[in-house]
Amino acid sequence: MVSMTRFAGLFAVAVALAYPGSASAFHCPADMAKIDAALAKAPKLTDAQLADVRKYRAEGEALHKAGKHQESVDALAKAMKILSIG
Fold it and tell me: Taking CA 84 as the corner, what is the angle to CA 46 and CA 67, rounded to the nearest 5 degrees?
């Protein structure tokens, strides 16, 4: 017999695995905020790096709005890597 606590834990894991995009959905806005905060501090980047950050930031937001959350997280991660934030 499975205890209710163990059942609840297993149920939570099953739900998380069934909806992996929903967790990423909340990750995107947090990453965008981190990027925006880093850009506000006028980081020392080349013009090309700054253009890439802005491109990946915009791409990440567009993908987030389209419901493509993992792709959004991936694009935003590229911008964060250039900015050396995480």
Answer: 100
Q: Does domain 20-83 fall into CATH 3.30.70? A: no
* Model pLDDT for residues 34-65, shown as the tens digit of each residue: 999 999 998 899 999 999 999 999 999 999 99
Q: Domain extents for the chain?
A: 20-83
CA distance 75 to 61: 9
pTM of the model: 0.71
Sign of CA dihedral 13, 67, 54, 42: negative
Place of tokens 């909340």: 26
Pick the closest to residue 64 from 33, 38, 85, 18 (CA basis).
33
Question: Are residues 61 and 71 in contact, defined by beta-carbon separation less than 8 angstroms?
Answer: no
- In this predicted structure, the answer to whether residue 29 has a pLDDT above a threshold of 90 is yes
